[in-house]
Design goal:
Length: 137
């Protein structure tokens, strides 16, 4: 499995916009643009089509309507640098998850013994319930 540290993201695929932060910080948060909005052009990442589709699926609502970009917003910290790092780390984690190909499900059938065991358990349970009826004098 590819770790987020091994993911290489080309700088030309990224564009950053800085937003006014929210939450605690008072005047500092109100006057400085510490929040980061990272826009990633998917075509510029150079990923295989299957990986790209998995990345779109993982990103979910972060994908734009035209499915060409992913937008990651981070306002968690009061520092612009740490928000930039956090946004890039989230992107790297998504790309690393997209590189993992899910295992195909193989259909299985329960064995004859398992079916019999299940039916026996149902019969026994039914008998237990039947014995709970009103007492006849």
């Amino acid at each position: 499995m590819m770790s987020p540290d091994e993911v290489r993201i080309p700088e030309e695929a990224l564009s950053e916009t800085f937003l006014a932060g929210t939450g605690p910080g008072g005047q500092h948060a109100n006057t400085s643009e510490t929040g980061v909005q990272l826009r990633v052009r998917l075509a510029a990442l150079g990923l295989a089509p299957r990986v790209l589709n998995r990345l779109r699926h993982i990103a979910g609502s972060k994908v734009t309507k035209d499915r060409a970009d992913i937008i990651i917003t981070c306002k968690a910290s009061r520092s612009q640098d740490s928000n930039r790092e956090e946004a890039r780390a989230r992107l790297a984690e998504m790309i690393a998850k997209a590189h993992v190909q899910p295992k195909k499900r193989r259909k299985t059938k329960p064995s004859r013994a398992a079916k019999a065991k299940r039916v026996d358990a149902k019969v026994k349970r039914g008998q237990t319930k039947k014995l709970r009826g009103k007492v006849q004098h």
